[in-house]
Amino acid sequence: MRESSKPWRPFTANCCSVEDQAFFGNYSRCRTSKSDVSTSIAPLPSFRRLSFSDLSRSSSIRINEDLAQNFGPDLFDFQLSELRAITQNFSSSFLLGEGGFGTVHKGYVDDNLRQGLKAQAVAVKLLDMEGLQGHREWLAEVIFLGQLRHSNLVKLIGYCCEEEERLLVYEFMPRGSLENHLFKRLSVSLPWGTRLKIAIGAAKGLAFLHGAEKPVIYRDFKTSNVLLDSDFTAKLSDFGLAKMGPEGSETHVTTRVMGTYGYAAPEYVSTGHLTTQSDVYSFGVVLLELLTGRRATDKSRPKNEQNIIVWAKPYLTSSRRLRCIMDPRLAGQYSVKGAKHMALLALQCISLNPRDRPKMPSIVETLEALQHYNDMAVSCGQWQASPKSTARNGVSPRGRLESRGATYRKSAPVTSRKRN
Ligand SMILES: Nc1ncnc2c1ncn2[C@@H]1O[C@H](COP(=O)(O)OP(=O)(O)OP(=O)(O)O)[C@@H](O)[C@H]1O
Ligand SMILES: [Mg+2]
Fold this sequence. Notes:
Low-confidence stretches: 1-52, 387-392, 394-412, 416-420
Bound molecules: adenosine-5'-triphosphate, magnesium ion
Structural class: alpha+beta
Order of helices and strands: HHHHHEHEEEHEEHHEEEEEHEHHHHHH
CATH architecture of the largest domain: Orthogonal Bundle
């Protein structure tokens, strides 16, 4: 298959990693020699040992030269004026969303913009560029997504680096983020089968990253970073925090703790030790969100319900109890066996000991097996449509009815991704 047949190469090979060493301390460039570049090995077209330190402090002209040299025709190097034109000058009516690092706008490219670029809708991310963190994330995204191609990763079409401006151009994902579908009050509830399909797609994306020749740790798996195609195929976006996995006999990489509270694995938060199993923990949290329709953290709820793990854990091991925390918006239209297995899988994923967590390929297998169950709770009498039973998810232990998702709050980042 194309997506797995294209090996990709480490970009931190020379002298540093993105955040731990040379990023701010060592500004000397460690460019690969021209001869290195010219002897590049097929089948990875022109990519050679591109490193963050190569590019992190270079001028925008130099960065463009380096990226163009390394990615060649695989990525388009856009001008700011071109991106302004296709987004109506980043008008608010073209706004798709806003994250910790800037806004995302819809744009349309036509056949004439660039040779080899077909007419299509695109999403243009405009990074807020005060300080270096924005540039760092931009660069990480270009370097990772520029090389990694898979049907469950969003496709990076190109980038723009002009003086202080940093932009990214992606394929447009017509159904937006999983976060919007699960939690926005006006959205239509996602059916059980679609939730399962999304979980499988996202799991395949992570399995691909973890199984790469040089494993990649995604580090920011959460519902807002799972984007949905028109047929609800899930694709991972946002590789600004991605990190190369440990090499050789190393068991982990040590990094500054970054990510999003509620999703980050506890051992990573407490030690900074990052492994692929940290992503598995975050995946388990998202499974809980798919089951319950609740956010990983929600400060608008009573104290003991604010953290999804603390709240849901006691309910995960029995179908009878699980019923109480299933998303009321599913209205019983979910497979009882499927939900039970998904809940048990989520429980394994959020194990405190990373070694007890399953690996992504086995997660994909487990989830795929759930697609065949048709025992809908509502048809097997396991779901009563009375307000009393269906509202359990929305009723506090004291019996007070809570409005679901009354306040929209974005989960707080572990290390603030917004600058002060
Ligand atoms: N390729 C795309 N196609 C369609 N919509 C997109 C695309 N990329 C992003 N979006 C929309 O823009 C929103 C903002 O994305 P962004 O990645 O900037 O922030 P976030 O994921 O919400 O938060 P964070 O900064 O913590 O990652 C997404 O939630 C999604 O709704
Ligand atoms: Mg994002």
